[in-house]
Amino acid sequence: MSESKELTYSDVSEHTSKKDLYLVVHDKVYNCSSFVDEHPGGEEVLLDVGGQDATEAFEDVGHSDEAREILEGLLIGNLKREAGDPAPTSTGPPSSTPGKPQSASDAAGLGIGVYAIILVGGALAFFAYQYLASSSQNKS
């Protein structure tokens, strides 16, 4: 494995078959030929992105740490970008805002907001009931 090896999109695009399959993930080039039959998602998934930038497809699935370690073992070099090459599809894990990594607080923000609304609504209903109950007792 020579991480200093640089390949262009043109080089990578020539490797699209099951026995000769290169993928680009985060501007690194991986030879996935030996892993096609072992891929838990099936060989079709890899063949669909063979010879291309597979960053978005890889991150959208939410691969485990073990999958990322396997990927590192398949590394053969870096992508050398040239004029006319497609722009990178993603620079990090999937997020709700492009270019901004999703944090746990962003993902839980709506859930906490809903609980806050329910809590405030419940408190208002309780105090309204108490007020109306005391008003009806004063009139009797």
Structural write-up:
- The chain has 140 residues and is α+β, with helices and mostly antiparallel strands.
- It has helices spanning 9-13, 43-48, 55-61, 65-73, 104-139; strands at 6-7, 16-17, 20-25, 28-31, 75-79.
State the total count of DSSP E strands. Answer: 5
- Mean of all residue-level pLDDT scores: 82
Inertia-based shape: rod-shaped
Number of helical segments with 4 or more residues? 5
Helix content: 40-55%
- pLDDT under 50 segments (min length 5)? 94-101
Question: What letter string, H or E per element, gives the SSE order?
Answer: EHEEEHHHEH
Main β-sheet, in a few words?
Answer: 5 strands, mixed
First-to-last CA distance: 90 Å
Radius of gyration: 26 Å
Layout of strands and helices, then pairs:
Elements: E1 6-7, H1 9-13, E2 16-17, E3 20-25, E4 28-31, H2 43-48, H3 55-61, H4 65-73, E5 75-79, H5 104-139
Provide a quick synopsis of the model.
With 140 residues, this protein is an alpha+beta fold. It has helices at residues 9-13, 43-48, 55-61, 65-73, 104-139, and strands spanning 6-7, 16-17, 20-25, 28-31, 75-79. Strand 2 and strand 3 form a beta hairpin.
What descriptors fit this protein?
single chain, 140 residues, alpha+beta, five-stranded mixed beta sheet, 5 helices, rod-shaped
